[in-house]
């Protein structure tokens, strides 16, 4: 596989989800930041595209999933302009990287992600972030359905419990997607000549 048709997706690594004390903190998400940073650094060194996929909800909840409307009334999260919507420390985008805003689980739903990937000739996506059973999983399955080669970086992703994490990895692998560690993934990428 040619590393020039790969891109990295970092999903929902925002203060409200990935920093201790966040409005909707996911256990274990904060611990993945150094691992995600390692693969992020490699993609930057290779000059490959990086997509920071973030959630943002209007403060009135008018654009949140119906299953979260009540929760958002009592506990606002990832509201644009608030500290909780910022990307977690150490993973902030740099110039030339993409920031894609979504209001649904999948990074492909109602966003420009697919358009940009196709324009750039990207066919292989490495997926990291939080949390696996919802946003990562939806993105992985939508990407597969759209014809992308999807790879989950298992140690650069998180779920509320290890049991949930392993069950989802099993399902994703059973669907024919690659599930590997960051070390395994990076060993397959060579710097351009």
Automatic annotation (TrEMBL):
One Pfam family it belongs to: Isochorismatase
PANTHER family: OS02G0276400 PROTEIN (PTHR47044)
Residue intervals of the Isochorismatase-like domain: 7-184
Keyword Hydrolase assigned: yes
Natural source organism: Desulfomicrobium baculatum (strain DSM 4028 / VKM B-1378 / X)
Protein name: Isochorismatase hydrolase
Keyword vocabulary terms for this entry: Hydrolase
Keyword Hydrolase: yes
Xref: CDD domains: cysteine_hydrolases (cd00431)
UniProt GO MF annotations: hydrolase activity
